[in-house]
């Protein structure tokens, strides 16, 4: 390897970078390449920071245009050491999500999908939904890219196999009588002594395990033997329940048309590219059955080879802490030995059998890849068609709204509150006609002096656009008064282009129909949008998404507020005194009906504190929700 100190004369990097290169450690870790302004341009990880980072600055290295441009802009390096390469991978993923570096290949649709968790090590196993896979002895099935399909599976299992679905501790029976789930034969009732045995319960649990593992023949054999055994012991009612279970399983198995002769988990990947658009499609094969697919769009893919994109995808997609690693990953191309060594952390993370990364050329695994390829190409075509349609719609929006250029970046602001309790606001962003959820923002309104939408909107304008530029088109959910309040606030902050970039959108309902109206600053007459025009659909979708996002945030805060005891909002009342008050009076309602003397006598509190509690519980504003964002 050439010495960076000798080759640096011909490279445009600073003396600060040279100093960093001289002191690089050979241990694993993460490196951040930064620009002159401190912007993080690239985040990477390596088992040897010294070798990896220096290789970027070697004069003899052949670089792609993207990497050459990256190196030319690097003015500083930051190094974070880790104990292992796996730790470096997890940290790298965290930093990529935080900084979204422009020279990293990014997963545009970065989601955490749900799994079914089966607590097999418990005395009475239960099935729950989780998004985190832990090494806790439980069995995890998934991921499920389609949550509705997972819910259907869960609903079928709970209808067929009577396992406990509650959160009551089941180490030993504690209740006197079972709940309604037992009465409708959806639970064996392990919470009540004498209703079932551990052996009977685990027999049903074994059926669930075999069902989720896709071992259909073993499951049918198990159910058939149990049915015969019940009938032989004259337990006809239990035999009939097992028979119904057997029929349900048969019915489900007949619906599975896509199956393969494999029992270990397999993921098939295919990369479809066209111009600057790149889509990675992942199909999950579990126990020979196709359980779902994931479609992930990649960003910053220019000048990157297919192998580079595959490696970057594997590291980000499977490097997440909650990611499930299959036994085999099928790729359309063979990766170089160097890249396979880079991905050796997968087997370390899996902790069991090693993860095999192969590129099959024939047989059933090649059939899986062919199926993935067909779906990937279809997904790419659909995205290109949507992009083309979006371009046309945005051009029509430019014409309809009399803009200088198509509004590629659209934002919408919406306020959500109930009276003056917990007011919140949302700001959603569409990029080229599609939601860009990484740019969504939510606000906990600080204004607390009544329900004043104008002041709330002005607050959002000030907090969001005090230092940020305005989008191509900012849509306010409301009428001309709300629009004027926002424009006035933006102009006071120095946004001279506010009148050209901000509009409001309002519904107008009559006895015969409803329409959408757009208000422009300084114009008394609104523009009535055509009912079935694509621009109308785009703006309504934008506003509805802002409304949905605001309502979701408001509900979350309201649920937190309602489940939090009203007593804890009273000065001088902490968890211990709250517990004592509830024990003394039984409920907050009973406490509200008590006199000051009764509070002093029953709870043993001072007259001053009892008086404060008495008046606070009767005050309509007893529990201010707070105003921090």
Structural description of this entry:
- Helix 21 (596-603) packs across helix 22.
- The strands form four sheets. Strands 13, 14, 15, 16, 17, 18, 19 and 20 form an eight-stranded mixed sheet that branches.
- The chain is of the alpha+beta class and 629 residues long.
- The protein contains 22 helices and 20 strands.
- The model is unreliable at 1-12 and 620-629 (pLDDT under 50).
- It starts with a helix and ends in an 11-residue tail after the last helix.
- The protein folds into five domains: 4-104, GIY-YIG endonuclease (3-Layer(aba) Sandwich); 115-255, no CATH class; 266-303 and 323-380, no CATH class; 409-556, Nucleotidyltransferase, domain 5 (2-Layer Sandwich); 564-618, 5' to 3' exonuclease, C-terminal subdomain (DNA polymerase, domain 1, Orthogonal Bundle).
- 44% of the residues lie in helices and 19% in strands.
- The radius of gyration is 31 Å and the shape is globular.
């Amino acid at each position: 390897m050439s010495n960076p100190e000798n080759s640096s004369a011909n490279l445009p990097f600073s003396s600060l970078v040279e100093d960093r290169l001289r002191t690089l450690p050979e241990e694993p870790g993460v490196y951040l390449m930064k620009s002159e302004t401190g912007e993080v341009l690239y985040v990477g990880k390596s088992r040897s920071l010294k070798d990896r980072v220096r290789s970027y600055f070697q004069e003899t290295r052949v670089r792609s245009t993207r990497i050459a441009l990256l190196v030319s802009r690097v003015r500083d390096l930051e190094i974070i050491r880790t104990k292992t390469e796996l730790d470096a991978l997890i940290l790298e993923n965290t930093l990529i999500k935080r900084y979204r570096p422009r020279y990293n290949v990014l997963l545009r649709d970065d989601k955490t999908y749900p799994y079914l968790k089966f607590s097999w090590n418990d005395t009475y196993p239960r099935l729950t939904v989780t998004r985190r896979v832990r090494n806790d002895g439980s069995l995890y099935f998934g991921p499920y890219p389609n949550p509705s399909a997972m819910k259907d599976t869960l609903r079928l299992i709970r209808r067929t196999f009577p396992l406990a679905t509650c959160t009551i501790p089941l180490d030993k029976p504690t209740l006197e009588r079972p709940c309604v789930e037992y009465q409708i034969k959806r639970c064996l009732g392990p919470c009540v002594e004498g209703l079932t045995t551990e052996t009977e319960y685990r027999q049903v649990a074994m059926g669930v395990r075999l069902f989720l593992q896709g071992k259909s023949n073993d499951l049918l054999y198990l159910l058939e033997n149990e049915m015969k055994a019940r009938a032989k012991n004259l337990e006809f009612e239990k035999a009939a329940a097992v028979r119904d279970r057997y029929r349900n399983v048969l019915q489900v198995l007949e619906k599975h048309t896509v199956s393969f002769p494999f029992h270990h988990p397999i993921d098939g990947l295919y990369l479809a590219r066209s111009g600057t658009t790149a889509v990675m499609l992942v199909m999950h094969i579990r126990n020979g059955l196709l359980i779902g697919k994931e479609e992930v769009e990649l960003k910053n893919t220019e000048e990157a080879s297919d192998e580079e994109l595959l490696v970057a995808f594997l590291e980000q997609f499977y490097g997440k802490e909650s990611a499930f690693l299959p036994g085999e990953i099928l790729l359309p191309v063979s990766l170089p030995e160097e890249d396979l060594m880079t991905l050796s952390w997968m087997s370390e993370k899996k902790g069991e059998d090693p993860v095999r990364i192969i590129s099959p050329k024939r047989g059933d695994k090649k059939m899986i890849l062919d199926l993935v390829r067909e779906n990937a190409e279809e997904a790419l075509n659909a995205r290109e068609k949507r992009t083309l349609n979006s371009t046309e719609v945005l051009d029509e929006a430019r014409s309809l709204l009399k803009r200088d250029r198509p509004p590629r970046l659209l934002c919408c602001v919406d306020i959500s509150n109930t009276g003056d309790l917990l007011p919140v606001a949302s700001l959603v962003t569409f990029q080229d006609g599609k939601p860009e959820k990484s740019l969504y923002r939510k606000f906990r309104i600080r204004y607390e002096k009544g329900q004043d939408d104008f002041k709330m909107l002005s607050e959002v304008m000030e907090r969001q656009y005090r230092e940020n530029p305005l989008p191509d088109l900012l849509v306010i959910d409301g009428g001309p008064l709300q629009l004027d309040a926002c424009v006035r606030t933006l102009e006071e902050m120095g946004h001279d282009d506010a009148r050209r970039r901000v509009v409001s959108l309002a519904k107008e309902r009559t006895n015969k129909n409803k329409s959408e109206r757009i208000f422009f600053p300084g114009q008394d007459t609104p523009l009535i949008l055509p009912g079935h025009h694509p621009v109308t659909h785009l703006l309504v979708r934008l506003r509805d998404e802002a409304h949905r996002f605001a309502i979701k945030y408001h509900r979350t805060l309201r649920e937190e507020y309602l489940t939090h005891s009203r007593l804890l909002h009273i000065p001088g009342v902490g968890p211990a005194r709250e517990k004592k008050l509830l024990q003394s009076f039984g409920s907050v309602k009973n406490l509200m009906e008590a006199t000051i003397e009764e509070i002093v006598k029953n709870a043993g509190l001072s007259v001053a504190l009892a008086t404060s509690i008495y008046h606070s519980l009767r005050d309509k504003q007893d529990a201010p929700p707070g105003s921090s964002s």
